[in-house]
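Async update (no meeting this week)

Hi team, since we skipped the sync, here's where things stand on the single-chain job. The sequence we agreed to prioritize is pasted below, unchanged from the tracker. I ran it this morning and attached the output directly underneath so nobody has to dig for it. Comments welcome in thread, and please keep replies under the output.
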Amino acid sequence: MAFERRADGWDPVGRLNGAGAEEERRAADAGVLAAGTLACPACDARVAPGPDPLSPAQWVGCPFCSHAGAVREFLTLGEPTRPARVTVRVVPRTVGG
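Output:
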């Protein structure tokens, strides 16, 4: 397999500086575990999570039937996701928080 290298020194592949392998991290995909839907388990109404991140153990309530429960009860993972799509991310805990 060959990679194109140009005469002007531009290298689309990247070069190792002899110090070993380089690690590339992409912030957009970092920590994404799954995509899913946030909806009431009792009436299937969509639930808007709001601007702040939620943990699986936090409580939310249904705006339609007032059913309340942990976020994990309202979350359905996998395809097809419906309009109340959410992204499930893994985030490290902060010390003291």
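Quick observations from my side:
The mean pLDDT is 75.
The chain has one helix and five strands.
Reply here if anything looks off.
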